[in-house]
Amino acid sequence: MPNLIKQKNAASKLMEFGIVRHTVDNMYHRNPDQGERRFQFQGQGKILIALSQEDGISQKELATKLDLSAQSTAEFVNKLVSKGFVTKEKSTIDRRMTIIKLTEAGRESATKESQKIPEFLNVLTDEELDQFTNILTKINSSMYNEINENNSNLFKKTQKTIKEHFRDWFM
Amino acid sequence: MPNLIKQKNAASKLMEFGIVRHTVDNMYHRNPDQGERRFQFQGQGKILIALSQEDGISQKELATKLDLSAQSTAEFVNKLVSKGFVTKEKSTIDRRMTIIKLTEAGRESATKESQKIPEFLNVLTDEELDQFTNILTKINSSMYNEINENNSNLFKKTQKTIKEHFRDWFM
DNA sequence: GGATTTTATTCAGGTTACCTGACTATCTTT
DNA sequence: AAAGATAGTCAGGTAACCTGAATAAAATCC
Q1: Chain B residue with minimal CA distance to A66?
Q2: Torsions phi, psi of B159, nearest 5?
Q3: Contact status, residue B129 vs residue A5, Cβ threshold 8 Å
Q4: Hey, which residues does B99 pair with through a beta bridge?
């Protein structure tokens, strides 16, 4: 049973981290001229990321992969189409399906967004980076367990997405 | 200059952490019967937290404190009123102002939400908890710098909120 | 092989967290 | 008292989601 005080310390720092990070995100969000917005794994960004892993899949597959409703997926895809980041075309094999493909601009945006290293990691020493990585690995697997206990289907999807997402991360 | 590989490792774990945590949050969000939703420092929750630190302040003060527009603040307050978590009353000193107060239910909800320790911290040893706390402290101050460079006013507000928020954390 | 069911997508409408603009009521300053 | 500044409201908008109902195409059933 770990020390409760230490747990509370860590918990408060972690919550602070969440709040401050959120603040920083909003800051960039509100000043899009200065820096770019940070990557967030949601909405249109989610679609872009999924497509950069596996391009030319159907809307349904996207929805399943990302655990989104078909309707939300359609919405995000349509927004990306008007931004010129993806294209939609009817499948010739099964004309119910719509195949979504990244455009050049979309691909660029996806890779640029997802492979960014947050600046704040610059303040950590090599030793701290290792510690941080180890700790996060433990925390992440604990959360995976939590997901798995609750909804093993969601667990599988999440793991798959993460695995695919980080497959290209190094190289 | 820290090792780039180590940075990438840490960055990917951190991004994974964000994604998985988001997944867990949504999981609880979609099954509100099972567990409670996790704390998030936004919207109505933000108001509740601020009030639990300083009850009976005006809507304007809330907005300033939380760096929200007056209109958003009004919206959240009204939603909380209909949930019976806060009350609104016209100030007698300055009848332009509306004083917002927590009800018993509101206070309960606020403290319950904010003082929760995430389960995943249970998997860390005492040593890891210390390491994690140190690392997060460094990261947080780095982000404060980033905020300060961009918008020193926002920086002050954020620091103040955080300070007040965590003042009661260890009671 | 025509009727039924399933599947992929769309449309309409709803929620929460935000925002900006325009307007009212009240207080302060000149 | 007139002009200005403040606190708050109303209307309307965006992004990320969701559910329900409708449509079109494919698959399955008898």
Answers
A1: B23
A2: -60, -40
A3: no
A4: B58, B89
Across the range B142-168, mean pLDDT stands at 81
H or E stretch at B100: strand B98-102
Question: Are B124 and B65 in the same domain?
Answer: no
Residue with minimal CA–C1' distance to D17 is: A72
Chain D positions with an atom below 7 A of a protein C-beta are 6-12, 15-21, 24-27
Residue A4 and residue A60 share a domain: no
Query: How far is the C-alpha of B41 from the C-alpha of B38, rounded, in Å?
Result: 10
Domain boundary among B114, B143, B160: B114
Domain count, chain B: 3
Structure confidence at residue A34 (pLDDT): 44
State the pTM of this model: 0.84
Same domain, B82 and B61: yes
The whole-number pLDDT of residue B100 equals 96
Interval A111-154: pLDDT, tens:
877 777 788 888 999 999 999 999 999 999 999 988 888 778 78
Query: Do A48 and A24 share a structural domain?
Result: no
CATH number of A76's domain:
1.10.10.10
Nearest amino-acid residue to D23, taking CA and C1': A96
Quote the percentage of chain B above a pLDDT of 90: 42
Same domain, B54 and B109: yes
Cβ B96 to strand C below 7 Å? yes
**Coil, strand or helix at B55:** coil
Contacts of B81 (CB under 8 A, 6+ apart): B87, B88
Instruction: Return the residue of B nearest to A14 by Cα.
Output: B136
Contact assessment for residue B104 and residue A126, using Cβ atoms and an 8 Å cutoff? no
Kindly determine whether residue B120 and residue A143, on different chains, have CB atoms separated by under 8 Å: yes
CB A103 within 8 A of CB A85: yes
